[in-house]
């Protein structure tokens, strides 16, 4: 039996006012994929995620998620926005942040016990359940990213969209994060924006390159020439096949 497509984009273009950002995009993402979206700053990665969420309408062409419109599929999508776009200066606990993922489902602005159970389960999933009552701003960068993933998981999604979940975290936390994501990938499709090709190429199944146009590659084809084509040679490659020690960089 053929694997169902979670995302189907046909001849899609998008412009902010008169400014073309994405042009003639054709993209399919099969169920169970774990793909990373890469490309230079301003290439259109976040815009593509917003189109998938139905927050922006395409200027032309079509987008289907789970065979229907992005707006109708939104309940099946978990979204973690870019860390830098979040303002959590107001006093909220880890549980409060996780519960925000249930806002679309809760009635009359009140969380039910089912919402609370879902938030607790999501926090357990990312190993942050012991921090429920901790103030969000008191957490480290890696812990915050995990809570934000729990928020996205709270809606029990079938498609998880993550916008640069590895920004602001060290290599160890990044490894933990990818272990969590690999586990989640057994039950959901994952699309993740990252500039960190060196690490993601070891764990993801395909790479979606976004630079006004969109090209999909299996991870095995990533090499220096391709990276230069995507980033115009400007990417600061982060290597994960070496370790640092007192003697400097050591290759595995
Ligand atoms: N609300 C907006 N109004 C007008 N232009 C916008 C808006 N949001 C983004 N853009 C422009 O669209 C282009 C693509 O932006 P987008 O945020 O999708 O890029 P990106 O690939 O996610 O970049 P980065 O790697 O820096 O996060 C950029 O040129 C940006 O300036």
TrEMBL record:
Record-linked SUPFAM superfamilies: P-loop containing nucleoside triphosphate hydrolases (SSF52540)
Entry keyword annotation includes Metal-binding: no
InterPro entries with a match to the protein in the record: AAA+_ATPase, ABC_transporter-like_ATP-bd, ABC_transporter-like_CS, Metal_Ion_Import_ABC, P-loop_NTPase
Residues covered by the ABC transporter domain: 7-237
Record keywords, A-Z: ATP-binding, Nucleotide-binding, Transport
Gene Ontology molecular function, alphabetical: ATP binding; ATP hydrolysis activity
Similarity comment: Belongs to the ABC transporter superfamily.
This protein's name: Zinc transport system ATP-binding protein
Record organism: Desulfocicer vacuolatum DSM 3385
């Amino acid at each position: 039996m053929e694997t169902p497509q979670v995302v189907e984009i046909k001849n899609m273009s998008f412009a902010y006012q008169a400014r073309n950002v994405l042009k003639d995009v054709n993209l399919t993402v099969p169920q169970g994929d774990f793909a990373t979206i890469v490309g230079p700053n301003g290439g259109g990665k976040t815009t593509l995620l917003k189109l998938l969420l139905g927050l922006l309408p395409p200027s032309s062409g079509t987008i289907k998620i789970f065979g229907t419109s992005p707006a109708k599929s939104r309940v099946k999508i978990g979204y973690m926005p870019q860390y830098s776009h979040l303002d959590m200066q107001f006093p909220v606990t880890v549980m409060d942040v996780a519960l925000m993922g249930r806002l679309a489902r809760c009635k009359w602005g009140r969380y039910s016990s089912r919402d609370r159970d879902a938030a607790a389960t999501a926090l357990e999933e990312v190993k942050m359940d012991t921090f429920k009552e901790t103030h969000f701003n008191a957490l480290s960068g890696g812990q915050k990213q995990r809570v934000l993933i729990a928020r996205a998981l709270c809606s029990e999604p079938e498609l998880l969209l993550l916008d640069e979940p590895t920004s602001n975290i060290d290599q160890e936390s990044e490894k933990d994060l990818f272990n969590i994501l690999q586990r989640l990938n057994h039950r959901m499709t994952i699309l993740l924006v990252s500039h960190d090709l060196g690490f993601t190429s070891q764990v993801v199944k395909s790479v979606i390159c976004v630079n006004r146009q969109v090209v999909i590659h299996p991870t095995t084809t990533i090499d220096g020439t391709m990276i230069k084509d995507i980033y115009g040679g400007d990417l600061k490659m982060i290597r994960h096949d070496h370790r640092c020690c007192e003697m400097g960089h050591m290759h595995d």
